[in-house]
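Milestone 3.1: sequence recovery, worked example.
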C-alpha cells in the first residue's frame, strides 16, 4: 500500500461528498435505463429518448427525475466510498495492467456486495416509474420486500437476507465495470501524458479524455450483467436468486434478441 490510512480515509470522505453531487443530475438516466430494460418488448422504450419521453408524457418530468433519488444518493455514497477505500489501499504505483485489472475487480466486487440492498431497492423503485400509482419510497420498498419474504419464508432458506438477493450478478456487474474503467482510465492518462501536445502534464483535457474512455469501456463491459441484474431484482420474492436462476434469466434474455438484448438501455447507461 502506497498511501497511509489517514490519506485513504480522507479520500473516502471526499468521494462520499462528491457522490452526492451527480445523482440529482443523472438519476433520470438510471430511471430510463431500468424502465427500458424491464419493458423490453415495448417499442415505446426502444431508446433513451423514447423512454424518457414516455415517462414524462404520462407522469411529468418530476417522476423521471426524482424516482428513487434518495436511494440513489445512499447507494452512491455507500458504494463509491467502500470501493475506493479498498482500491486505494491495494493499489501501487508500479502495478502492471493485469494487477490494476485484478485490484479493480476485487474492489468493485466488495463494494457492490456492501451496497447490494440499496441497488435492489433502487431498481425496484425505478420499475414503478411508469406505473399509474406513485412509486414507493425507499423505506416503503424495504418494508414490502421484507413482508414478501416473510410470507414466503418456507420457500426461502434465509428470508432475513432477502435484501442481498441477486448479489452474485450485482457483484459481477460492478467488478467488470470497476476493473475495466479504472484500468482504461489509468492507461489512457499514461498514454496521453506521453504525447507531445500534453507536455507530459495532467490537466483538464487529459482527465476529460481519459474519463470519456473510462466511461465507454466500463459501460460496455457491465451492460450484460446490468440487464440480468434488473431482471433478478424484479423477480417474485417467492424464491431466492441462485446461480441456476441467474443462468435461466440469462438464457431468457438471449432468447429475446440474442447478444443485442444484453445491451438494452446502453444509451441511458452511457449518458449516465
Amino acid at each position: 500500500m502506497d498511501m497511509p490510512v489517514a490519506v485513504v480515509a480522507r479520500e473516502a470522505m471526499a468521494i462520499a461528498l462528491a457522490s452526492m453531487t451527480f445523482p440529482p443530475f443523472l438519476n433520470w438516466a438510471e430511471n430510463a435505463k431500468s424502465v427500458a430494460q424491464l419493458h423490453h418488448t415495448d417499442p415505446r422504450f426502444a431508446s433513451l429518448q423514447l423512454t424518457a419521453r414516455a415517462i414524462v408524457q404520462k407522469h411529468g418530468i418530476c417522476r423521471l427525475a426524482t424516482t428513487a433519488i434518495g436511494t440513489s444518493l445512499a447507494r452512491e455514497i455507500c458504494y463509491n466510498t467502500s470501493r475506493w477505500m479498498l482500491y486505494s489501499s491495494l493499489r501501487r504505483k508500479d502495478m502492471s495492467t493485469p494487477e490494476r485489472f485484478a485490484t479493480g475487480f476485487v474492489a468493485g466486487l466488495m463494494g457492490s456486495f456492501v451496497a447490494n440492498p440499496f441497488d435492489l431497492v433502487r431498481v425496484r423503485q425505478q420499475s414503478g416509474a411508469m406505473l399509474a400509482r406513485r412509486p414507493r419510497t425507499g423505506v416503503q420498498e424495504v418494508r414490502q420486500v421484507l413482508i414478501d419474504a416473510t410470507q414466503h419464508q418456507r420457500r426461502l432458506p434465509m428470508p432475513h437476507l432477502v435484501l442481498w438477493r441477486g448479489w452474485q450478478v450485482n457483484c459481477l456487474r460492478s467488478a467488470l465495470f470497476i476493473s475495466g474503467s479504472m484500468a482504461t482510465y489509468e492507461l489512457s492518462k499514461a498514454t496521453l501524458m506521453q504525447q507531445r501536445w500534453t507536455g507530459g502534464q495532467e490537466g483538464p483535457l487529459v482527465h476529460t479524455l481519459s474519463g470519456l474512455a473510462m466511461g465507454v469501456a466500463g459501460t460496455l463491459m457491465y451492460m450484460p450483467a446490468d440487464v440480468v441484474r434488473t431482471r433478478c431484482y424484479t423477480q417474485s420474492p417467492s424464491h431466492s436468486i441462485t446461480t441456476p436462476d441467474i443462468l435461466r434469466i440469462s438464457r431468457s434474455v438471449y432468447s429475446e434478441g440474442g447478444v443485442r438484448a444484453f445491451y438494452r438501455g446502453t444509451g441511458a447507461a452511457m449518458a449516465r
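The chain has a mean pLDDT of 83. Residues 3 and 89 are 7 Å apart (CA to CA).
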